[in-house]
Write a structure and sequence with these properties.
Length: 82
Amino acid sequence: MSSTAHTHDRPVGDACPYCGWPDRAEPFQVVSRHGTAAGHTVWTRCGCGSLQMRVVDARGMRVVSRSRPAAEKADGVRCGVV
């Protein structure tokens, strides 16, 4: 049996679960792009800092993996440790 409950009141679907920004909207930063036999793999960083792996192929673009945003240190600077 699967649950439809959503934890932490984060958005469901095509949006970042950490900040709610739509996956298809700017701003996001392209970190790297790699050609594959079926299309492209694109690594991007959301405005909140979440690293995302996107697959772009004949079916369109979809986020297939994403990290949490980087933790902030006491001085408000992101340290890159997740």
